[in-house]
What does this fold into?
Amino acid sequence: MHTSRTLNLGILAHVDAGKTSLTERLLFDTGAIDRLGSVDAGSTRTDSGELERRRGITIRTAVAPFRLGDLGVNLIDTPGHSDFVAEVGRALGVLDGAVLVLSAVEGVQARTRVLMRTLRRLRLPTLVFVNKTDRPGAREAGTLADIRRRLAPRVVPMATVHGIGTPAARTVPGSYRDPAFRDLVAEALAEDDDALLARLVDGAPPGAGELRAALADRTARGLIHPVYFGSALSGEGVAALLDGIAAYLPAGEGPGAADAPPGGGPGRPRTAATGTVFAVERGTSGERTAYLRLFSGELAERARITLHRREADGTRTEHTGRITFLETVGAPPDTARRLTAGGIARIRGLAGIRVGDRLGSLADAGPPHFAPPSLESVVRPVRPADAARLHAALAVLADQDPLIGTRALPDGGTSVLLYGEVQKEVVAATLDEEFGVGAVFEPSTTILRERPAGTGEALEEIDRHGGHLFWATVGLRVEPGARGSGNVFRRDTELGALPLAFDRAVEETVHRTLDEGPHGRPVTDCVVTLTRSGFVGPVSTAADFRQLTPLVLARALADAGTRLYEPCHRYELDVPVDCLSAVTGALAAAGAVVGETVAGEEECVLRGVIPARGLAGFEGKLPGLARGEGVWWTTAGPDREVRAG
It folds into this structure.
């Protein structure tokens, strides 16, 4: 029985480092495609969208399979622009390993450092590919020194370049038959291995097989990073990189193991299926195709599954459906309809499926790798008659990127959450070209949210003498919930006190009403309890409860009072020592608090908290303040109350 292994491989880079060109070259050199595409010509395999082709940037995560012997590789191409950081974050959650691409000309750039810091924090096995060795200004020794100083101290150069910086540049891979190369690898491995160091001192170095296995082990644990040199455009050095992918990045059992007994063998219980949806595509007919990475268990067509979701307000929901189509990426036809642990499949049939949905518990999803968006913009149709179409189109885009968090506003506009202005331009172009809806974005503002300041109650009862507007009784209590808990609806009334349709009308209306609190901002971390309910049959209708609930909830919120909070980010910033004064002044002007300063000989590390409202302005100034050498890293932080004045 032939068993295949599957490696889910991410390609990450600073924008313009050559990430998509390398992706194209890997697919071509392994026979997955029969001709090379061009980023400039808009003909690459993974940048298939019209906007991606026209702009020459990756916007959506794409999956493309290729094979290396018995290793099946699902190559996952991710965006390089910081406005699409959410796409990168989602991809990181499904990867087994990564290739970080940087340019031999520009060297280590700020975003390269941010990405490597994330990869190292996750202990994700990572190879480094230094691209563009045939360009004027390309450097080998200088780039290696930069990598060790600014990316990761423990790296092993797996090749050298002859004629670097010229069109004739040629990559010469290192060989374990070469004693000098064996010594280079052994010395890198000995940095955390006293026994190996002693052997080197005693003149008894390990052989090629032992060195290769040890390097694979350290790479798999994220402790060391092999570095390759080459040119994606010419293909120089790519063969060595492919050898490194097969030799040093760990892979698990994949689609080819579909004929193995479920659960690992006869008599063993079937392992529960767990996985995550990391991308959603919308076909021309509107049907959704989702990409699901499976971590355990197995799935097949016609399987009924339950997906779990964390909504934008923190609440948890689930939805169940049947898979009507399943195709394992890269699998041969006879096994493509079954997905086993480690593999990725395209699935259809679940109408409400969304990026971020989890198969299995949400508890094992882990925290997000990047901060959520902190900007909000109101979108309005160019033609007022297109308001409904605009909101529907944005809802479709939110399925592909839930972090944009769309919500309809009473005046006909739609609120969306964004990372930056480039993302706004892309959304506007997508609405126009894919949905035929012209849209205008208002200037972006910082997202603010409201939280209950205390407990408040309100009650509206049916007046038996007719002194009422609605045939419904609704009593609600509002109180603060735990931070990060979202909005929770509870009942103090007896189960079945209301017909199901009336009960659902109250709960759904409560969640919808909390989209806008007394200050006009979404309310979060709020517990709403139904304390009283009543109806008169057959006169009362669900509409009575839908119309009365917002009035009662508004009074309860007013009684409790709400406070306004602004999002903040924890940051870490590396800057040259001589730029410290200017940078700290700009941080203070942005409203940031510096909590810790660690001074080194050449660089200082600053850590603290910055409000989201000051983020974009500071990030825009940082390159000038730090001569382009500042490395800015943020994660979601605790929000803080907006004080009067």
Q: What stands out?
A: The mean pLDDT is 84. The longest helix spans residues 542-560.
